[in-house]
Each structure stands twice: as C-alpha cells, then as structure tokens.
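stage 2 :: seqdesign
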C-alpha cells in the first residue's frame, strides 16, 4: 500500500491488476461503441418523432407561415410504431449513457468537444422542431397568451380560449383546459414575454420557450465543462449524464418543460456562493446575488425552494451570508406572490394530495384511489426521514461546493418519495449530480429517469400501459428508494478519490464558518 498526500491510501499494482489493465482497452472500446450507438440512435428516433408530432400527439399545432418552428407535415407514422420506437429509444438512451459511464470509469477517453458538439447539434434541431412527447408547453403558451389579453392564469383557464373563431384555440390542449396554472409567478412572466414575442401564434410562442430552454441547457453543459476541466473522467461523466443524455434532451428540449429554466437558474445561484477553498465563506454581496437567483428558481417552480433551504443550512455558521441569501430569496418570492394574490398561493397546494401515473405509490392503490388514507402525511414523513438520512450520510467531497451537497441531499429525498413526480423533474437532481463524484448514486438516478421516461411515452397500448404504470415502473422506483436507503445506511457509495467521510468533513469544517 502507498499513502498519497492527504492521507488517501492506494493499493500497489499487482499481477492481477496488470492483467486486468491489459484487457481494459478492448473492453473500453466495446463499451464506448455501445454508448455511442445507444445515444446516437436514441436521439435520432426522438428527432424523427419530433418532425410531425401532431400526427400522433394531439392537438396538431398550427405552424407559422415563415420561420421556426418547422415540421414535416407529409411525414405520418402510425401511433403504435412511434410509441414502440420511443420505448426502444428510451431504453437505448439510458443504456447508452450507462455504457458510457462504465467505459469512462474503466479508462475510456473521448474528446469532450465531441460530446459538446453532439449535444449542441441535437439541442439545435430539437429546438426548431415542434414540441413532442408532452403537451405541457402548449399550456405554457396558453397561460402566456392569457396575460397578453389582460387575464391572470391563476383564475382564468385555457378553455376560455377554445372558442369558435379563435385560431389560437386550435392549439389549446384539452387535457388541462379547465385547470389554472400551477407554476410560479416568474414562470408566468417568462410565458408572457414569449407570448409577446410570438404574438397570436401558439407555435411561435412555443419556439421562444424552447429557445430559452436550449440556451439554459447548453449553458449548464458549458459551466460543468469549465468547472471539471482538470478532471478528465469527471468531465466526460458530466457530459454523458447531461449534455448528450437522450432522456434529458427528450424531456427538457423536445418536450420544453419549464423545469430546465428552474434548474439552470437554481444551479447558478448555488455556484455563485463559491467553493470550499474560499476562506471565510462567501462575501455578503455574493450571498445576496445567490439568494436572488435561488429565489428566482423557486419563483419558477416552488420545489426549488429546497435549493434555498440547502444554501441556508450550509451557511448556518456564517450568519451574515445566511441572512443575505435567505433575505434575497424572499425579496424575489414575496412581492411576486403578493402581486398575483391568493390564487397564486393556492396553486402551490394544488397537487399536494395527488399522484402521478407512474409513482411508486401506485403499488399501494386501487382503481378507486390510494389505499393509504393519509397519503400526504405519509409522504411528508417519508421525505423528512429520507432528507435527514441523506443529509447525514451523503458523502462529502473535498473539491465539491458544500452547498451543492446539501441541495442534492434534499432534492434526492423529495424526488424519490414524493407521490407527484414526473421524469423531467429529475433535472433538479442531475444538474447537481454532474458536479458530484461518481458513485452508485449515478445508477439509481439514471434508472429512475429511464423508467419514468418510458412510463410517460404516449400512444402505448392500453394493456401494456396499465401493466407498466401499475407494476413495472412503480416497482423500479420503489427499488431505487430502497437502493438509496441502502447506500445511506451502509456507506457503499464507491465514490472517487475526492470523497471523504461525512464525519471527517464535519470535523474539518467545524473550526471555521462553513464556506461554499
């Protein structure tokens, strides 16, 4: 055994180790080819599905005469074919990312620029095509259009626009036409700006929303690339989990979900707080700026209040910075909610007693509803217990910003056990995970994302969809919860060399303010 600086112990090379390293290049090449094949084929299927999504996912969006988005109206693929292809694409995408992660761990190296270029090209193509896989972004466009007409989407519902003679009404989805918006005031403002730029064309409004998602998505990729520039393996891992991850591209770019904006703004707020190498903690000015961005993320989607809580907890030994961050976040949240009044607050509570189709709680439900009589109370208790466990047991890393660890621990607890979850919500985890050392946590997050994506693919035959939603996907999600608890209890994270035990990190930081 040899001891490296900092007390990290490494075993000496052995004959067995040399034999393994001799075959590693061949294995790495095979894994690299498998990763590239899975990722590229998955993205290709998703692009084809986005060429004319109106032919298999109503409503059929009316395209503008000039400019993006563009579609191929002559392309019509039968619904069973496109659903099967997307199922396979989700499996291929998740499997390709997994193969890439294993290849990188075994020493494979490709150019990060190749991954960035692939991600950029994929994002660009999906941005200029109509939204696919979800109709949520059409609701965003509807809410923004309402504001341009002088109405509040916290009171008005989309059905008011579905009237004869209103061309915009043809693009209003029927699924949520009697529901008010469930998003924060800043999300409403974003949708309003897109509606101003897009005018009366729902397709043009959607394009602006997708464009901002695309810019934010690639910004996260470039920021991660910059932060991890001295860590070749970590750099490639980040691009696999984020930049070229077909599952995220499908949900955040093709689907255009607003979670991308919240994740990007929230991550920026956490990064502003600095690193563990910043002596004395962040300055008051940095804490203020971080609070503004963290508050903005929560003002887009309220679950990102967890990022604020994580930051405040990490700064607890630096009262000025803690109060600055919390105060700035509230300075964003309070006025905007006061502006829209009680209906905006009611939107925060609209989904507290509901389940999504693929939640693990489906295993405890019947056709009439959940078996658990007090599902909300049970879920809150589960989140609190898991949050305490992850905050205590998630490994610390010497080069990781402590505030990212706190936000990651809280996000894991909420996303893994809250009954209302959708696959694009996992952007909250992945945007943090890419800056965290590689561990078995990667597999749990990737498995969740793959299972959730498969569950939400439209057009699946009813019998197969019932089995998938009722048993398969909920079972996978439950297994991921069990896996997370197992890792927390046993400590078998298998983190990289930068990881240090939580107890050691706590004692190392106990003599001075916790800096971020």
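stage 2 :: out
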């Amino acid at each position: 055994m040899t001891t490296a600086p900092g007390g990290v112990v490494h075993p000496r090379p052995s004959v067995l180790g040399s034999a393994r390293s001799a075959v590693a290049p061949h294995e790495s090449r095979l894994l690299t080819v498998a990763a590239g094949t899975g990722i590229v084929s998955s993205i290709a299927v998703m692009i084809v599905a986005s060429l004319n999504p109106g032919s298999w996912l109503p409503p059929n969006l009316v395209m503008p005469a000039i400019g993006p988005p563009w579609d191929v109206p002559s392309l019509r693929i039968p619904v069973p074919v496109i659903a099967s292809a997307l199922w396979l694409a989700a499996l291929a995408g998740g499997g390709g990312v997994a193969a890439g992660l294993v290849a990188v761990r075994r020493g494979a190296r490709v150019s990060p620029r190749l991954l960035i270029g692939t991600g950029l090209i994929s994002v660009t193509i999906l941005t200029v095509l109509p939204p696919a896989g979800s109709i949520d972004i059409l609701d965003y466009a509807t809410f923004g259009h309402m504001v341009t007409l002088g109405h509040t989407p916290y009171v008005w519902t989309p059905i008011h626009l579905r009237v004869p003679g209103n061309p915009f009404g043809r693009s209003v989805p029927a699924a949520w036409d009697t529901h008010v918006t469930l998003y924060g005031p800043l999300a409403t403002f974003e949708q309003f700006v897109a509606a101003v730029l897009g005018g009366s064309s729902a397709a043009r409004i959607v394009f602006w929303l997708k464009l901002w998602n695309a810019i934010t998505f690639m910004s996260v990729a470039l920021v991660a690339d910059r932060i991890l520039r001295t860590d070749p393996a970590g750099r490639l891992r980040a691009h696999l989990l984020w930049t070229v991850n077909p599952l995220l591209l499908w949900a955040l770019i093709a689907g255009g979900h607003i979670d991308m904006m919240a994740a990007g703004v929230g991550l920026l707020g956490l990064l502003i707080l600095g690193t563990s190498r910043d002596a004395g903690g962040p300055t008051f000015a940095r804490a203020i700026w971080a609070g503004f961005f963290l508050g903005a993320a929560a003002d887009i989607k309220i679950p990102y209040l967890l990022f604020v809580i994580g930051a405040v907890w990490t700064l607890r030994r630096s009262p000025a910075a803690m109060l600055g961050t919390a105060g700035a976040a509230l300075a964003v949240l309070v006025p905007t909610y006061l502006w829209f009044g009680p209906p905006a607050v009611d939107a925060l509570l609209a989904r507290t007693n509901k389940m999504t189709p693929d939640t693990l709680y489906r295993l405890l439900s019947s056709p009439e509803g959940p078996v658990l009589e007090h599902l909300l109370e049970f879920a809150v208790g589960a989140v609190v217990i898991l949050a305490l466990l992850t905050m205590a047991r998630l490994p610390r890393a010497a080069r990781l910003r402590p505030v990212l660890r706190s936000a990651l621990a809280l996000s894991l607890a909420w996303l893994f056990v809250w009954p209302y979850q959708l696959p694009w919500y996992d952007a909250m985890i992945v945007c943090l995970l890419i800056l965290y050392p590689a561990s078995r946590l990667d597999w749990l997050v990737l498995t969740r994302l793959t299972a959730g994506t498969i569950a939400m693919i439209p057009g699946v035959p009813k019998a197969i969809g019932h089995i998938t939603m009722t048993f398969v996907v909920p079972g996978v999600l439950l297994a991921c919860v069990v896996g997370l608890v197992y890792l927390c209890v046993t400590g078998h994270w298998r983190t990289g060399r930068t990881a240090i035990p939580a107890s050691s990190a706590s004692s190392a930081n106990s003599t001075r303010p916790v800096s971020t």
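stage 3 :: structure notes
- Residues 1-23, 497-516 have pLDDT under 50 and may be disordered.
- Residues 15-50 form the longest helix (36 residues).
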